[in-house]
Amino acid sequence: MDFKLSIANEILAAAKRAFGGAELNAADVAAALELPPNPEMGDYAFPCFKLSKALRKSPMMISDALAAEIRADYLSRVKSVKGYLNFFLDRATYAERVVEAVLSQGERYGSDDSGAGKTVVLDYSSINIAKRFHIGHLSTTMIGNALYKLYQFFGWRAVGVNHLGDWGTQFGKMIAAYKRWGDHDTVARGGVDEMVKLYVRFNAEAKENEALNDEGRAWFKRIEDGDPEALEIFEWFKSVTLADAGRVYDLLGVKFDSYAGESFYNDKMGPIIEILKEKGLLKEDKGAQIVDLEPYGMPPALILRSDGATLYITRDLAAAKYRKDTYNFDKSLYVVAYQQDLHFRQLFKVLELMGYDWAKDCEHVAFGMVSYEGQSLSTREGRIVYLEDLLNEAISKSRAIIEEKSPELEDKDGVARQVGVGAVVFFALYNNRIKDIDFSWDRALNFDGETGPYVMYTHARCCSVLRKAGECDAEPDFKALDDPEAQDVVRLLEQFPETCKSALNKSEPSMITRYSVDLAQAYNKFYYEHKVMVDEQGTRKARLMLTEAAKQTIAKALDLIGLDAPERM
Ligand code: ARG
After folding, report:
1. Which residue's CA is minimally distant from atom 6 of ligand 1?
2. pTM of the model
3. Which residue puts its alpha carbon closest to atom 1 of ligand 1?
């Protein structure tokens, strides 16, 4: 139940009885309810000056009159303090209503159907062909995946797009290198690593031998002209890259609805250029075609190079239009590093200038950089951490910890995979997305700190409590949940729907990650202070129900950020 809304209704009804009513709606009153900083001030506080104007009375008068009027079974006390109304929930009723709501709504607890009939397109992960998946792509992949799940949770249709980086002159060079020095089996066996080697060799040798670059350009031209041999090799490079990336996606449990990448738009940019021309937006600048964005305080958007070649933004313009035409989205999100901030501001501005009112529905969901054990990553200096290696290392570290702590566990490999991957992903989703993150083993794999393994462990603890308890059909005595520890758990459970909603509205999965830690900590505190399996059956049942509600909500929170919740660890 929504306590804020109920209290708001009590306030309005009391105002009507005492003063003949105020022209206000319950939602506004509910929004004005505050969470007081300390328990002496109750569970909610309402500043009565908000009603002063409508009622033409002083806040003190209002709070005194309303405190005398308001009665409800879920409120133990209503106090008037200097123009504030302090509401004290009846602890047992509070616990009962929250726990029953969590358990009766099950999987759906925390959501609503506000997204029914709406569509969101999410562009995330968007890896580059012939490059290995390094940890720089972890945030986009997992933030995007979490948002995908959150939107679905709220009833949206979500479309996940992996906008592959599969266009550019470097692919001509790669083919040239492959034709000179490569062979099919080596690349097929070695995957992306072999392609990278060829590319590195090409660049090294091209420094001495300018003819190589011409060769590269010629192959690129052949790709562009649709030459069958060039296309075949290029498509094969793509499938090798995607097979490599597929292993990582499988480990992470991430899927996409579309892999339409940059090359998909080869034949879809013509109409965009036409519209830009028609609207008088294209300007010539030293042979190139640009859209002047100076009036908006941005450098120009380069649409066509002087040799007629299209650019990253040209493809993104076509992609945006294609997504609108194909999916008719209500929202289109781009989960991409903040370094591309200018690119997206330019993109959205050009769409707006083209007259597309849906440009306002496009949004760049930016995130910070990843470093590793205090070192920034750099491809050029060879300081690079591959995601697959990182995940596998996390899995084997988890395997060792499990071996030590729970040698009896069944399916150690499966659980090690869930925990290891969970540790890495949890780490990536723990801080506000815009903050840079420094990956550290100590902090990610700790079973006690604010980590994925800790939250998973708490979930497994709840499962174990419930397993050992077996059936208990007693009537729950919710008065047994009036202690501060149980009440903290109840309050967090009550806050889950609001947390999910804010995470959705702010595109901020970290709110759910942090929430899961808070709930796990609150439950553990409860668990240490109170015995669940007491003789008194009503108390036992109430504590078991609280445990079940905590377990279900932790599992859902983990699920929303893309993680499994093992039942045993
Ligand atoms: N492939 C790009 C990169 O790795 C990201 C693409 C993002 N999506 C887009 N529509 N521009 O930097």
Report:
1. 126
2. 0.94
3. 165
